[in-house]
Amino acid sequence: MTSRILLLSLVLPFMASAQPGMTPEDRRGVEKWTNDPRFPEDTFRFVRLRPEYHPMWATDYPDSDLNFSFRLQQMTSIKVNPDPLIVDTLDPTLKEHPFLYLIEAGHMQFTPREAKALRDHLLNGGFLMFDDFWGEEEMENVEEQVKMMFPDRPIRELELDHPVFNIVFPIKEKPQVPSIGYAMSGEMYEKGGRDVRYRGVFDDKGRMMVIICGNTDLGDGWEREGENHFYFKEFSEKKAYPMGINIVVYSMTH
Fold first, then answer.
1. Cβ pair 128, 202 in contact under 8 A
2. Strand duo 156-157 + 197-202: pairing
């Protein structure tokens, strides 16, 4: 699978941070690129999921979505739509978006209708990434939401020999990314979430449909890359982007 992805750069330049006071409609200082106009829909698009009961769905938005989309097209040969989307769980267009990103999942609840819509979508080839939740209480909530979607499927621990850790970038340890505030204070984890955990839910053919990134905040590594050079070098460049790109490529090739 890796041979299908051309790595254009392994060294990330220090990107300017988003400008204060800009609205979500702005690109926040992130360059906009163009793809082949003959194939306008033949691109990967970063889609943020917005459940009905989720007060923190917009955490890190829009900077993380914009920065990740930019880095994905910059560092690989993947054609990426420069405009990420927000999609409600019951939106009829959900089935058009194979990759879904859900942040701060320790603070949300699916409705039964949402759980069914997501179960159907994921069994039909979709992929859902949970990110940025910390500690046992939030972990238990995420497990409850996953069990609403898949009451009959186990949540399995992912070991480093799973393809998601090496499909593009070889990752030698499970990456734990603290928020920038914790990193600047010398802390690596929040709410007692010392041990980073990556887990998955699989279909009958062994394809991972859900990845659960616990006790880590990959989204902050994308959002805050331009705010502090140390944070960029230690967490955005080394951990957040390689793991995020691996997850996307896995979702596209399995």
1. no
2. antiparallel
Look-up of token digits 């230690």 = 234
Give helix then strand counts, H and E, for the chain.
7, 7
Per-residue pLDDT of the chain (254 residues; tens, 9 = 90+): 333 343 434 444 444 344 344 444 578 788 888 888 788 778 999 999 999 999 999 999 999 999 999 999 999 999 999 999 999 999 999 999 999 999 999 999 999 999 999 999 999 999 999 999 999 999 999 999 999 999 999 999 999 999 999 999 999 999 999 999 999 998 877 777 789 999 999 999 999 999 999 999 999 999 999 999 999 999 999 999 999 999 999 999 99
User: pTM score, two decimals?
Assistant: 0.90
Q: Any bridge partners for residue 213, and if so which?
A: 198
Q: Which residues pair with 88 in a beta bridge?
A: 50
Q: Please say whether the beta carbons of 156 and 200 come within 8 A.
A: yes
d(CA 106, CA 54): 9
Mark 73-111 as b/e (b = at least 16 C-beta within 10 Å).
Answer: bbbbebebbbebbebebeeeebeebbbbbbbbbbbbebe
Strands laid side by side in the 47-50 sheet: 85-88, 47-50, 99-103, 127-131, 208-214, 197-202, 156-157
Q: How far apart are CA 123 and CA 207, in angstroms?
A: 10
Cis peptide, bond prior to residue 84, ω within 30 of zero:
no
Tell me the CA distances in angstroms from 197 to 93, 128, 145, 172, one per residue in order: 31, 16, 17, 14
